[in-house]
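Annex B. Sample input.
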Amino acid sequence: MKKSRQLKRNRKQRNFGLGHQPAYAAKVALAQAYGGDSHFYTRYTHHARFKLVLVWLSKLDPPIRDLRDITSAHAVAYAEHLAAVVATGSMEVAYAQNLISTVNTVMRAIRLDKEIRLSPSDAVGKRTYIRTVLPMASWDKVIEAVRLAEKAEYYRGAALILLWRAFGMRLREAALADLHRMRSEAEMYRGVWISEGTKGGFVSEDRWIPVESVQWQALDYAIHTISDTGTCLIDTNSSLKEFLARHAPPIRKVLKQVGIKSPKELRAENFIELYERESGQPAPLKQSGPFDRGADLRGREVVGKSGGHKRPTVSSAYIGKRHRSDRPGEEAER
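Annex B, continued. Sample output.
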């Protein structure tokens, strides 16, 4: 977030003078904080999450419809509400933490201070980065999802599904990927680099994805869905925001129809296959007992690089974690 640049807030006007509607005022504040022409996806995400906060505030007695009236007590009460939802199993800890982080970020942008701020982990619990359930995103389910998307004429949505599964891309990466560049690289090097739309702008030369049959099919399909003058799935006269609003919600529904929980499951399934191919042994999610430690580390390193992460330890979020008692020679060392 950028510095305030000597911005001021009018505390005598509704929503600090940022607009009549709280949601619009929050959007303006985020644009001022991050810059109106940059960090679009970050601003979009925070704004979408904050609208959920505003809905919750509007249901209080009395309802809160002016950003000036939001206090630390409201933030604490909202955190307690989220913690209760997490306890029922209806919400992941990670998402609840993201909502709290959004409250911190948006209120700082609105108020230009840090008076309303909570620790996400203290408020709703610590998140786990270790996957414990298989993603269940087989190619059979992927093809079924693509057919459903085509039936609804969401061809670019179908392309997203294929790119997620074949290349292990994130949503934004698949939407912004220069498809013609990728095809040229695939033809020349039999592999591609993931460069556009990366998380935090982190681009690594190590993020090299070999292109085989399924990658070629996904890439060809995606290229056939764009215009002659286009380079990515987003039209030249459209924006990322418009693209996400049009394609993301219906495609998530399509995935759930075939038993795939979310786009992240496609990414996880891709990395499980990659780990097993590189290590020559089942992923931790599929295997307990002794394993080859060296092969495990090699597999995790490849998954970390292919996923666009700086640390191989993040691979546990996709493939699971080995138990210490399963390591060879562990018993002898005790």
